[in-house]
């Protein structure tokens, strides 16, 4: 993790979402301490892996505990980025580590739900583990394509839609409620349908961005050639 001159935390613009604002408050006391954003990413990963594991056991209260851990992991996911912003700490490796942790936790989350549903509904039209796997692979593809888009056009190209301070991923905060209301089966089916559809949308967006970048590169090359000929 490389360090630059730490900015004044008060001068850094406030995040637009509620959970990121809470994360900013939680990590502000950590500025100037040995705690780094990578430490918080590791904490998020550990909490998320524990949550996915408890989800997969098929027992109601353990599943509820797993859902609570997943919701907590989703909140902690914002702390590393907020600490990096207000402390002036950043690195490409740290950013990649954050993305990899996000992808791993999300994939295992859906697999865990698949195993849970399989225990309670062993005779579904498709094995629940397969549905969890489909949702998980689709989410992994989404993370990969968003990472590629971000490498081409920056973070603005992968910014999630938000409304009233909430983002799409904030639906994970409702996972404990879904668990308590025995809604894991419809949640899994919706994810197995919705995640691949969204992956197709992101793939189309990736193709659009790639085409635009290629056209810009060609235009830049043509302009340079014209300038060279004009100098001659």
TrEMBL record:
Pfam families, per database record: CDP-OH_P_transf
Transmembrane annotation, as ranges: 52-76, 96-118, 130-149, 187-206
Keywords in alphabetical order: Membrane, Transferase, Transmembrane, Transmembrane helix
Taxonomic superkingdom: Bacteria
GO MF annotation terms: phosphotransferase activity, for other substituted phosphate groups
InterPro entries tied to this protein: CDP-OH_P_trans (IPR000462), CDP-OH_PTrfase_TM_dom (IPR043130), CDP_ALCOHOL_P_TRANSF_CS (IPR048254)
Swiss-Prot/TrEMBL GO biological process terms: phospholipid biosynthetic process
Gene Ontology terms: cellular component: membrane
Entry's family note: Belongs to the CDP-alcohol phosphatidyltransferase class-I family.
UniProt name for this protein: CDP-alcohol phosphatidyltransferase family protein
Organism encoding this protein: Caballeronia cordobensis (Burkholderia cordobensis)
């Amino acid at each position: 993790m490389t360090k630059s001159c730490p900015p004044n935390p008060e001068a850094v613009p406030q995040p637009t979402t509620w959970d990121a604002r809470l994360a900013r408050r939680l990590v502000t006391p950590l500025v100037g301490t040995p705690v780094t954003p990578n430490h918080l990413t590791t904490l998020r990963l550990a909490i998320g892996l524990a949550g996915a594991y408890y989800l997969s056991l098929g027992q109601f209260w353990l599943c509820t505990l797993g859902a609570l851990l997943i919701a907590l992991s989703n909140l902690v996911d914002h702390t590393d980025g907020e600490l990096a912003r207000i402390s002036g700490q950043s690195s490409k490796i740290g950013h990649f580590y954050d993305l990899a942790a996000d992808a791993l936790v999300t994939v295992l989350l859906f697999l865990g739900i698949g195993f849970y549903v399989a225990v309670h509904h062993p005779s579904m039209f498709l094995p629940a583990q397969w549905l969890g796997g489909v949702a998980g692979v689709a989410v992994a593809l989404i993370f990969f394509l968003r990472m590629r888009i971000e490498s081409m056009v920056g973070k603005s190209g992968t910014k999630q839609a938000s409304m009233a301070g909430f983002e799409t991923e904030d639906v994970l905060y409702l996972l404990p409620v879904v668990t308590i209301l025995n809604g894991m089966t419809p949640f899994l089916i919706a994810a197995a349908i919705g995640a691949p559809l969204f992956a197709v949308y992101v793939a189309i967006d990736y193709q659009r961005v790639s085409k635009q970048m290629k056209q810009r590169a060609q235009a830049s090359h043509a302009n340079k050639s014209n300038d060279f000929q004009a100098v001659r």
